Amino acid sequence: MSEHTASPTKRASESATEMIQAVLPNDANPLGFMLGGAVMHLIDIAGAITCLKHTRQRVVTAAVDGLQFLHPIRVGDLVILKARVTCTFTTSIEVEVQVFSEEALTGVRKLTCHAYLTFVAVDEQGNPVQVPPLLLETDEARCRAEEARARRGERLRAKQALLAREAEMLMPST
Hints:
Strand content: 25-35%
Number of strands: 8
Oligomer: single chain
Order of helices and strands: EEHEEEEEEH
Radius of gyration: 18 Å
Structural class: alpha+beta
């Protein structure tokens, strides 16, 4: 980790992000549904903007937790992304992103998917740097942070298992 001190504690509301975009034909498959990859791209952008606002530093995506699509987003709909910091660690941040579709003519809104992303703050050379702590002002925020710590533990265990499998695959056969 490079020598960098994080700025003071910040509230989740200071970095919360909302993005709204119209779904156009170039965002869709032949059935008129928004491409999953296009949705994932927007999720990554919303998460990165949220982290940038929290840290005022460069960030890179480290992980995306299970992402499931509940409802399709159609051409002509609005896609609405709401992102907020759930927890900070030494050099990383977990962000929750909720994605909604809204029928532009009726205003009917549906939750279409939800994801947790982990970002790492880095300096100009790509070395991890400290991030500002998150001020947990409510019981709900404290609960979200506790759940985030549990998810982080699961992610770290999964990463270690993946690294172990990779090492086994790279070992020469005898």
